[in-house]
Amino acid sequence: MAACCRKLSIMNIEEQSAVDLGRRIASGEVSSREVTQHYLDRIAEREPAVAAFTNLADDAVTTAEQADQQIASGQLRSPLAGVPVSIKDLLCTASLPTTCGSRMLREFHAPYTATAVQKLLDAGLVVVGKTNMDEFAMGGSTETGDGGATHNPWDRQRTAGGSSGGAAAALAAGMVPLSIGSDTGGSVRQPAAFCGVCGLKPTYGRISRYGLVAFASSLDQIGTLAHYVEDLAASLQIMAGHDPRDSTSLPDPTTEYLAHLDQPVQGLKVGVIREHIDNPGLDADIRDGVIRAQQALQELGAEIVEVHLPHTSHAVPTYYVIAPSEASGNLSRYDGVHYGFRQLGDSGAAAPLDAMISRSRSQGFGPEVKRRIMLGTFALSAGYYDAYYKKALQVRRLIAQDYGAAFEQVDLLLGPVTPTPAFGLGEKLDDPVQMYLQDLYTVGANLAGIPALSLPAGFNEQGLPLAIQLQGPALGEARLLSVAYQLQQQHFFEPRIAECS
Amino acid sequence: MPITSSQVRKVAQLARLELTEDEVQLVSDQLASIVTFVDQLGEVATDGVEPMAHPLDIHTVVRPDTEVPGLSREQALSNSPNHNDECFLVPPVMAR
After folding, report:
1. Catalytic, out of A17, A78, A86, A163
2. What domain range is A261 assigned to?
3. pLDDT averaged over every residue in chain A
4. What secondary structure does DSSP assign to A276-297, as a single string?
C-alpha cells in the first residue's frame, strides 16, 4: 500500500497518511474543511467507546476554513497545512483548557501557547482537541487522570498505554491522522506500541519544551504519534529547532527529515540489544517481531550485529529515582496561589497559608502523583541524597556511556518497546513496581537523551498490536526515520484502524 | 528498606502534602517496596563516576538582553483562585 497508490474518497480519509492528506488539500482535491469534518464525525461516533479526549475544539471547522483560504491564497505551504491534529493535554494551548489530567488543573486556561503547538498552528494544522493522559504524565496506562481511563480501541478492556494513551487511542480509532504527545520514560513509544501506531521521541532538546507542563525536566521531550512514518518526519520538521524561550532546546540545525526518508539502508549496521532480547520476561510474539525486523533490515541491506547495554537492568531503578526527584521540584509550583486548585485548610491552623497549600495539594493531586512527589522528596532529603539521587545520576552516566559505546559499533539499535502487549485496565494500578517495570526498554533513551522510535510489528493471536523499537545516536532522527520508513515500504507492518465496534 | 511512619510524615511535611493515618500506612508500605527496588543501584560500582544531571553538554545559555513582551498583569492573574485587580490573594501567612 504505497503512499502514491491510495485513492482518496471521502469514505477512507482516515486511512490516508497526514502527508497524503496535506498534499491532497494543497492540490485542491479535498478541502481541509471536508477532512476536518470527516474526523469530527468519526470522533462523534467513536469517542464514547474510547474516551481519548479531555476537550474538543469547537472551532475546528472554522479553523479549517481559514486554512483553506490561506492555502488557496498561497500563504500556507507546509506539507501538513490543513491537516487535523490532536494535542496531549499537557501542552499549553491558549484556545483550549490544559488540564494535565489533574484535578489540580481542571480549570486551567493557559495564557499562552506552547512553542511546538504554535509552530503547528503557524503551519496551518487544525487542532481538533486535547487528548487524555495519566495525571501529569506519570503512568503507563492512561487511567490515573481526572477524567477517567482511555480504552484501547483494539480491546476496550485493555489500556491504551500511557501516558500519551489518548493520543495513541485517537489514532488507532481513526479519530485523527496525527497526535502530539510527550515522552519522559516511554510515554510516546509505549502507547504507540499498545495501539499499533508509530511513535517518535526525538533527541532531548530537539523540540522546545516551552509550554510543555514540566514533569522531569532533564528527561521530558515532545514527540509525535501517527499511522505512517512520513507523518512523524513531517511533524518533526515543523516542531524541531531552537527556541529562545527554552534554553535547553538544541541550537543545531534541523534536517529536512521528509527529504531524507529514502536514504539507503544498504551498508548500515544495526545492533540487536542482547540484554533486551534475552530478558525472560519478554513476550514471545514481541521477540518474534524483533527477529522479523532483523530479517527485514537484512533484506534491505543492513548488517545485523549483537550489542550489549550492560546496565539495562539498572535503567528502571535509575529512572524511578531521577524522574520523581525532578517531579517533586517541578510540582512544588502547585500551591493554590497563582493558578490551579485551592482548598482552605483547618481554620485553627498556625499558619493558614501553609494549611491552604497542603490541603490544596493533597486534594488536587491523585495517588500516583502524590506517591512520586513523596518518593522524589525522600530521595532528595538530607541523609538520602547521596545514596539515592546522586547514585542514580552516576548510574545514569554509565547507562549513557553504554549507549555511546554501542553507537561506536553500530548506526542504530533494534529491540522491543514493551515486555508485553497491552495489559488490562486496572491490572497494575495497585502494584507500582510492576507498573514501573513496564518501562524497562524505553527509559534508557530518555536517560541518555537519544532519539527512539516505536514501530508496529503486526498483531498477536488475540488481535493485540506488537511493536519494535529503533534507537539512534543524539540528533540521529533522519536516519532513524529513513530506516523506519523503508521498513514500512517493505510492508513490515500495515497501518490499520481498529473497528472498536 | 522499611520506611517508618515518622519518616513518611516528615517527607509529607517537606512535600507540603497532608496524609491521613490510613494514607501514612499505605505510603510507608509502597515507598518501602519502591525503595527496596531502587536499592539495587547499590550493586553498581560508581566510584569516581561524574553524576549526570542532564543529557546535554550545554551550560548557562543566555539570550540577547533585549526587552520582549511578557504576560500582562490581567493574564497573569487570570487563573488565580483568588485575586483582586493587582495581587494574588492568600490566607494569612501567620496565625492571628
Report:
1. A163
2. 10-268+451-489
3. 95
4. HHS-TTS-HHHHHHHHHHHHHH
Q: How many CB pairs under 8 A join A and B?
A: 178
Query: What CATH number does residue A113 fall under?
Result: 3.90.1300.10
To the nearest whole Å, the CA of B61 is away from the closest chain A CA by: 6
Please state the φ and ψ torsions of residue A8, each to the nearest 5 degrees.
-90, 130
Sequence-separated (6 or more) residues with CB below 8 Å from residue A467: A189, A192, A193, A194, A196, A286, A289, A416, A417, A418, A454, A455, A456, A457
Q: Which residues of B touch A381 (CB under 8 A)?
A: 10-11, 14
Predicted local distance difference test score (pLDDT) of residue A10:
55
β partners of residue A155: A152
How far is it, in rounded angstroms, from Cα A290 to Cα A279? Answer: 13
**Structural domain includes residue A339:** no
Q: Residue A107's pLDDT band (boundaries 50, 70, 90)?
A: very high
- Catalytic pick among A17, A88, A164, A235: A88
CA distance B78 to chain A (A): 8
Output the nine-digit C-alpha cell for B67. Answer: 526587552
- Asked about A360 being catalytic, the answer comes back as no
Contacts of B91 in chain A (CB under 8 A): 344-345, 352-353, 355-356
A163 is catalytic: yes
Whether residue A353 and residue B17 make contact (CB cut-off 8 A), yes or no, is no
Q: What are chain B's domains?
A: 5-43 (1.10.20)
The Cα–Cα gap between A360 and A331 comes to 12
This model of the complex carries an ipTM of: 0.96
Domain membership of residue A310 (yes or no) is no
Is the CB of A433 less than 8 angstroms away from the CB of B95?
no
Which residue type is seen at A224? T
In a domain, A378, yes or no: no
Any bridge partners for residue A308, and if so which?
none
CA distance B26 to chain A (A): 10
Does residue A61 lie within any of the structural domains?
yes
Structural domains counted in chain A: 1
Interface of A with B in 249-268 (CB under 8 A): 250-251
Lowest mean pLDDT among A129-138, A448-457, A491-500, B52-61: B52-61
C-alpha to C-alpha distance for A166 and A486, rounded to whole angstroms: 27
Closest residue in A to B8 (Cα) is: A374
Chain B touched by A362 (CB under 8 Å)? yes
Do A194 and A465 touch, CB atoms closer than 8 A? yes
Report yes or no: B4 at the A interface, CB cutoff 8 Å.
no
Can you list the positions of beta strands (E) in A61-135? 84-88, 126-131
Taking an 8 Å cut-off on Cβ atoms, the answer to whether B52 and A378 are in contact is: no
Confidence band of A4 (pLDDT split at 50, 70, 90)? very low
Amino acid A3: pLDDT:
41
What are the pLDDT digits (tens) for A300-353?
999 999 999 999 999 999 999 999 999 999 999 999 999 999 999 987 777 899
Q: Is A27 a catalytic residue?
A: no
Partner residue opposite B17 with nearest CB, options A337, A356, A361? A361
